[in-house]
Amino acid sequence: MKLFFDERQTLHAPLRELHNGDWVPYAENVERPRAIVSQFADWQPVRDFGMAPLLAVHDAGYLAFLERAHGAWLDAGRSGDAIGYTFPIRRRRPLGFGRIDAELGAYSYDAGTPVAAGTWQSAYWSAQGALTAVDHLAASGDAHSFALCRPPGHHAGRDYMGGYCYLNNAAIAARAAQARGLGPVAILDIDYHHGNGTQDIFYDDPAVFFASIHADPCTDYPFYWGHADETGEGEGAGRTLNLPLPRGTDGASYAPALDQALGAVSNWGARFLVVSFGADTHSSDPISSFALERDDYAIMAGRIAALGVPTLIVMEGGYAVGDLGLNVAAFLSGF
Prior knowledge:
By secondary structure, the chain is an alpha/beta fold. The chain is built from ten helices and ten strands. The strands form two sheets. It has an eight-stranded parallel beta sheet with strand order 4-1-5-10-9-6-7-8, with helices on both faces. It has helices at residues 31-37, 52-55, 60-75, 100-106, 119-140, 169-179, 196-202, 251-268, 294-305, 321-333; strands at 2-4, 16-19, 22-25, 43-44, 144-147, 185-190, 208-215, 240-245, 272-277, 311-315.
């Protein structure tokens, strides 16, 4: 299995986030990728596929905003990281703004996703890592590849950021796989939190199947999406499967949901799979409440690999830095 990462993905380094009513150190920090990188000796370089694959998923105005946001924040006389504080929850529509504050609210849904000086560069190269991994699978015939995507992506929608996510790496990879004729494409999200951005992007799309196993949104972020009755709409009806699980879920309790999701992916006829993998399902994770252990990850991966289709694993969450590298290594070992 080839592994892809670019050092520019560490340039994104916000200092703090607003969490549960208080300012706390930013959890999605640069120690996360470093912990994973340290577990493997052979990382492959990331190629630049330009903006076109990003525009196949994201709104052009949103991408332009991400690229200029921090500079506009400084130009407005601010310091530190750019964070929104006003969000249009009703009648959200495109408008021309003269203030960065308004743009931040228009293009985000939470106050925990700051735009720092290096955010655009890191998000850009994170997406390019996923694209490089797709290209490798298409060109080599290998069965599996891994993109250490950081910042993560599955909470980012077509024109919004949130949940530490700016560009939706899994969605960008899925569209690129389709463009290479590798479909039908399915996305399996096994992060602790629901991949609301990925679901939103493909919710009415009949060509991509999305399955997510995650903490019940009645109790956990992102709250408003990921409920079991969300199954797609329009031409995409029936192409979304949500399997919310209660806090405290361990490996034995998780396995039936994984088997159900994999069965649905197989029955749909997927020929290419993107796995949004989050190690925040581990029992030690400081912001999550599942109870999976390291040995569970290799077992999970083995079940996914048994589908027998080319599979790209993109990194999503996981915040127990001391365990993160070993947990990712355990998961990849199962392939």
